[in-house]
Amino acid sequence: MASGVHSEDFELSMKDGLDRSDALQSHSGEDGGLTSATPGRKFFRLVAVSFGLLCILLAALIVSLRLAFTSQPGTEASYEKLAEERDELKRINFDIEVSFKNLTEERDELRRINSDTEANYKNLTEERKELKRKLNTLYSQHISLTEERDELKKINSDIEASFKNLTEERDKLKNINFDTEANYKNLTEERKELKRKLNTLYSQHISLTEERDELKRRLKILGWVYFSGSVYYISSTERTWQESRNDCLQKGADLMIINNQGEQLLGLWGA
C-alpha cells in the first residue's frame, strides 16, 4: 500500500498479545485459579482478527482495481472511479491507522492490566496458600477442641452423677440425723427421769437403811435378832417346850421350828 498500516508490525503486535493471553490462560489453568480470559482480552482478540480480515479484504480490492485498470486503460470514467475508490481506500486506510493506534494503546493498557492481574494473581495464590495453612491449623485445633469438649462432657456427666448420689446420701444422712436427734432428745429426757427416780429411790433406800439399822439396834437391845426377813428372840433360860411356846406367844411370836441350816446355826450361836 502507498501509505497506511505496517502489516508486519501489526502481525507481530497481535501475535505478542495472543501469546501473552494464551500464556496467562495456561498458567491460570495449572494453578486452579483463573480458567478463562478476561473480557478485555476477548475483545482484543476479536478486534485483531477483524483487523486482519479487513487488511486481506483491502489487499484483494487493490489487486482487483489494478486488474480492472490495466484491462481498460483508456476509459476516463474508469479512472475517475478508480480515483474515487483510491480516495475511499485512503480514507479507510486512515481509519485503519487510527483504529490501529487505538488498538495499540488499548493493547498497552491491556498489557498493564494483565501485569497487574498477574501480580494480583500471584498475591492471591500466596494468600490462598496462607489461608490453606491457617485452615489446616484451625482444623487441627478444631479436632483437638472437639476431643477436649467430649472429655469435659464425660467428666461433667460423672460429676453430675456423683453430685446426685452425694445429694441423695446427704438427704438420707439428714433424715438419720433428724431421727438421731429426736431419739437423743427422748433418751436425754428419759435419762433425766431415770436419774430423778434413781435419786428418789436412793433417798428412800438411805431412809430405809437407816430405819432398818435403827430397828436392828432396838431389837438387839430388846434381845431380838433379825435374820433372813424374820426376827428371832433367843432366850438363855431353860424351859420345857410348852413353857417356851407360851413365852413366845405372850411376846407376840411363836416357837421356832428349825427348817434350814441357817436357822440351825442361828440357834447354836444363841446357845
Give an overview of the whole structure:
This protein has 271 residues and is mainly α. It contains 5 helices and 2 strands; from the N terminus they run αααββαα. A two-stranded antiparallel ribbon has the order 1-2. α1 (7-31) runs antiparallel to α2 (39-71), α1 packs parallel to α3 (76-222) and α2 (39-71) runs antiparallel to α3 (76-222). It is rod-shaped.
List keywords for this structure.
3% strand; two-stranded antiparallel sheet; disordered N terminus; mainly alpha; 271 residues
Helix and strand arrangement:
Layout: H1 7-31, H2 39-71, H3 76-222, E1 224-227, E2 230-233, H4 241-250, H5 261-270
Antiparallel strand pairs: 1-2
Helix pairs in contact: 1-2, 1-3, 2-3
